[in-house]
Amino acid sequence: MPESILVTGGAGYIGSHTVRLLASQGRKIVVLDNLVYGHEQAIVDESVTLMKGDVGDRALVERLFEEYRFTAVVHFAAYAYVGESVTDPLKYYRNNTAEPLVLLETMQKHGCKVFVFSSTCATYGVPDSIPIVETNPQRPINPYGRSKLMLEWVLADCGHAWGLRSACLRYFNASGSSADGLIGEDHDPETHLIPRVLMAVTGEIEYVEVFGTDYDTPDGTGVRDYIHVEDLAEAHALALDHLAAGGESLKVNLGTGVGVSVKEIIEAVEEITGNKVPVKYGPRRAGDPDKLIADPSQAKSLLGWEARRKDVRDMVRPAWAWANGPRKGRYDH
Ligand SMILES: NC(=O)c1ccc[n+]([C@@H]2O[C@H](COP(=O)([O-])OP(=O)(O)OC[C@H]3O[C@@H](n4cnc5c(N)ncnc54)[C@H](O)[C@@H]3O)[C@@H](O)[C@H]2O)c1
Ligand SMILES: O=c1ccn([C@@H]2O[C@H](COP(=O)(O)OP(=O)(O)O[C@H]3O[C@H](CO)[C@@H](O)[C@H](O)[C@H]3O)[C@@H](O)[C@H]2O)c(=O)[nH]1
């Protein structure tokens, strides 16, 4: 019998790329997504069942467990706008921390003990040292990061209490899109750097604002570790296999180990698109650390996972193809 996996938030950006990979491996996938930010069209495999609904809807989650007898849950569903989490923290604690408790209670009731969780490098806050290893102190500096860290703690406690085995995958900056251009990144509003730089090229926005030029980095702009969304997807498949085989809970960084500045992203976009990017230099964005770079070696030793693409141009190229593809970077067009 194929594995039966519940993927929450599977109609979103990272979730939809992961769903495609998992379905292509012959796993039965049921997506639970309320479509607040997700897109029905991002589910392209006919074998995948999409259920529109909320992770906190106990009756619906119970019904799904009754019907599909899930062997594992992959949990992407969350809100992820750092700025909004500062002005409306309860929205984040409710959706990212409280609602998943309903899911975990249902898993406990049904004896489902495998959970793969979308955590984030935002749980580290401003790191003491670079590259960031998993034992770096976790001191998030905004409610979004805290809402995610709390769920990491919940998972550890459920592990001790009833044998839940979890993989906390701490993503760095997800980027890129599927190689065939069929699915991609479509957030509304879009706040992420690479799509915004591309929007400045296509004229969808007048210019891209560079948030801060006085950081303690080689060129003064913020440095991040951009990881291809299809590389992230592979890590989920490996984490599921590890846990299904009886492997222990783990917490791993998912990044390339390469730091790229905002200016370098703009240069890569200019090289790939052949267009000058209209840029405006502005002040720092509140709550942005100067640099976040992963040490991804633990993911390699525990899961055998390593980023296939490490050159940021390999992330910008598919994002540009998606922005120019039949959907022009938007599912609803
Ligand atoms: N994008 C990144 O760079 C990044 C980095 C680190 C961590 N993450 C985490 O990865 C996950 C996926 O991120 P993404 O960029 O794909 O975001 P996304 O917004 O594209 O996807 C999240 C999906 O979850 C759904 N959702 C939200 N709350 C829900 C709920 N209560 N019930 C059902 N569905 C719900 C949304 O409709 C959306 O489809 C999130 O948990 C995010 O915090 C993202
Ligand atoms: O218009 C923009 C947008 C971003 N930036 C800068 O670009 C870098 C990357 O920013 P962004 O793409 O917004 O990603 P992050 O703020 O690093 O956050 C993302 O990556 C985190 C992990 O690093 C996740 O937890 C978050 O959910 C996700 O939004 C940062 O230095 C920003 O200051 C700009 O200069 N101008």
Structure description:
The model has no long low-confidence stretch (mean pLDDT 97). The protein is globular. It starts with a strand and ends in a 9-residue tail after the last helix. It has a 7-stranded parallel beta sheet, sandwiched between helices. A two-stranded parallel ribbon has the order 7-10. It has a two-stranded parallel sheet with strand order 8-13. The chain is built from 10 helices and 13 strands. It is an alpha/beta fold and 333 residues long. The protein has helices spanning 13-24, 58-68, 82-87, 89-110, 143-162, 193-202, 229-244, 262-273, 297-303, 313-324, and strands spanning 4-8, 28-33, 49-52, 72-75, 114-120, 165-171, 173-175, 208-211, 223-224, 226-228, 250-254, 260-261, 279-282. The protein binds nicotinamide-adenine-dinucleotide and uridine-5'-diphosphate-glucose (UPG). Nicotinamide-adenine-dinucleotide is lined by residues 8-9, 11-15, 32-38, 54-56, 76-78, 80, 95, 99, 118, 120, 171, 173-174, 187.
Name the helicity range.
25-40%
Strand order of the largest sheet: 3-2-1-4-5-6-11
Number of strands: 13
What is the overall silhouette? globular
- Helix tally equals 10
N- and C-termini, Cα separation:
39 Å
For the largest beta-sheet, the strand count, sense and barrel status come to: 7 strands, parallel
Mean pLDDT comes to 97
Which molecules other than protein and nucleic acid are bound? nicotinamide-adenine-dinucleotide, uridine-5'-diphosphate-glucose
The unreliable regions are: none
Instruction: Assess the beta-strand content as a share of residues.
Output: 15-25%
Elements, N to C (H/E):
EHEEHEHHEHEEHEEEHEEHEHH
Gyration radius, rounded: 19 Å
Structural class: alpha/beta
